[in-house]
Design a protein that fits this description.
The protein has one domain. The protein has five helices and eleven strands; from the N terminus they run ααβββββαβββαβββα.
Length: about 270
């Protein structure tokens, strides 16, 4: 391709990134003999990409999500976690994975080298499990009050807890390739069938790079299982949809006391 003085534009830029992704996954990752290492390589490459295209307020990691309600199970290990590290911090930071309070998570991404029909049930079950944490998110805010009624000039800081139950963190799927569908319509149909068994799951964006497919689940559709589907600009649509979705997530300081066995000072 001959270089010109004209700017190629955003579409051309993301189209080139998409081709680079495919080559990296097919050839560079393909040289690794172990399937598990191939998967981790694909995940790490995608995390690195998100770190470049998302605003710096969004941190990128991997690990487990949990809430302060003991009866709600922890999430499965999540390939990509998009989280707040300005007002919050993971509960545990280990070398291979972090443990995140649900309060600090903007979104999650399941990364697949090759997406197959047999993957859909597990992917949706994992998303459903993550979204079940949402009703148990507690935050804290601070304000100044008089230390005593008769001493209004002596102000002290106190904390107040408040709860946010909606919306749950955003859920995405990113696949370098697929094996099992002849068309995006057949993929949508399989997803709709799988969502019957996992009605609490929701996919805010799914991209298959090798096919240039992008789809996203419509919110509050008549069946709850309708999708927008596109056959072009998959990577650009995925990033645009992710930015829109995670930007609408409220974020505050999590109430760490909720995660302690006893209140501080007790």
């Amino acid at each position: 391709m001959t270089r010109t003085n004209e700017t190629p534009g955003v579409d051309a830029y993301f189209e080139t990134l998409q081709k680079i992704f495919q080559l990296q996954s097919e050839i560079l990752t393909g040289v690794l003999p172990h399937h598990g290492e191939r998967g981790r390589n694909d995940e790490e490459r995608f995390r690195d990409f998100l770190g470049k295209v998302l605003p710096k307020k969004y941190s990128i990691g991997t690990g487990f999500l949990l809430c302060s309600e003991p009866s709600v199970p922890m999430s499965s290990q999540t390939d990509v976690v998009i989280f707040d590290e300005i007002q919050n911090s993971p509960l545990h930071r280990e070398l291979s994975a972090f443990v995140y309070p649900a309060e600090m998570v903007y979104g999650t991404v399941e990364v697949k080298g090759t997406l197959r029909s047999g993957d859909l049930k597990k992917v949706l079950e994992d998303i459903q499990k993550t979204r079940a944490l949402a009703p148990h998110r507690w935050y804290v805010q601070y304000k100044s009050v008089p230390k005593a009624p008769d001493k209004p000039e002596q102000l002290v800081a106190i904390s107040e807890e408040f709860k946010i139950t909606q919306p749950p963190s955003r859920s995405f799927v990113f696949a370098y390739s697929q094996n099992g569908w002849s068309s995006i319509e057949s993929l949508v149909k399989n997803l709709q069938d799988a969502l019957v068994e996992t009605p609490a799951a929701h996919i805010h964006g799914l991209a298959v790079l090798s096919e240039n497919w992008f789809l996203a689940q419509e919110a509050y559709s008549s069946t709850g299982r309708e999708f927008y589907a596109h056959k072009d600009n998959a990577l650009l649509r995925f990033v645009r949809g992710m930015l829109h979705s995670i930007s609408s997530m409220p974020m505050h300081q999590a109430s760490v006391d909720r995660y302690l066995k006893s209140k501080l000072g007790a």
